[in-house]
Specification:
This protein has nine helices and six strands, in the order ββαβαβαααααββαα. By secondary structure, the protein is an alpha/beta fold. It has one domain: 3-Layer(aba) Sandwich (Rossmann fold). The protein has a six-stranded parallel sheet with strand order 2-1-3-4-5-6, with helices on both faces. Strand 3, helix 2 and strand 4 form a beta-alpha-beta unit. Helix 1 packs across helix 2.
């Protein structure tokens, strides 16, 4: 029985966002973001991401946009357990402003580029409060390309999924400003947890993950 658990980070992030998790009896494997093809659909992109997983019936943990990719993978392949953190399972869980932006294609009119003036606002919505957290988010900004960012935003706001895969567990914070809890049907709620809680509330997230993973690997 494999102890591997496959992690997909959030938009523009990497494995550092999971660095404070303390998991027991599992081996974290971090799936790398790949460059999207021109006008690539999320379903096709998810299939290409899945090529990094070399076992059957894996356990996948997806954060934010990575959770949406994990859902798309689980719709197409046999996945033993899908765990979402600070994410959305379907289009119905997206906030109204994302769906509206997708309908009127506002994101294509207003091109998204890094703007230092907006960094404090972005940090606020992400829930990055300490200097350590803000420094980590800043490193993510520097590593993400404009074309990838534009593709990802377009993919998120135009996401059409209404299917919830089997064996899915959703962990969400009650103070998430990106995906408000009012839209989310979560299995585990973190009181006061924001969008960055996998990092700044890692002890609580680790406890939940260890419980879920222990039950999952026991029957795998």
């Amino acid at each position: 029985m494999s102890s591997n658990v496959y992690f997909i980070s959030g938009l523009g992030a990497n494995e550092q966002v999971f660095s404070k998790l303390q998991l027991k009896n599992v081996t974290p494997v971090h799936i790398k973001w790949i460059i999207p093809l021109k006008n690539e659909l999320i379903e096709h992109y998810a299939r290409r991401m899945f090529q990094q997983i070399d076992e059957t019936n894996p356990v996948i943990i997806g954060l934010s946009f990575g959770g949406m990719i994990a859902v798309e993978i689980a719709k197409q392949f046999s996945i033993h357990q899908t765990i979402l953190i600070s994410s959305a399972k379907t289009r119905n869980e997206l906030p109204w402003w994302m769906k509206t932006a997708g309908k009127i294609q506002l994101h294509k009119i207003i091109k998204t580029k890094p703007n230092p003036v907006l960094y404090p606002v972005e940090d606020f919505f992400l829930g990055a409060d300490s200097q350590d957290e803000k420094k980590l988010v800043a490193s993510f900004r520097q590593s993400i390309g404009d074309e990838y960012m534009q593709w990802a935003i377009d993919t998120i706001v135009r996401w059409k999924n209404v299917t919830i895969p089997e064996n899915l567990t959703h962990i969400h914070g009650t103070s998430d400003k990106i995906f408000p809890i009012s839209n989310i049907k979560a299995d585990y709620r973190i009181g006061g947890g924001g969008h960055f809680m996998v990092y700044n509330r890692a002890e609580e997230i680790s406890s939940i993950l260890n419980t879920v993973l222990s039950a999952t690997t026991a029957v795998k």
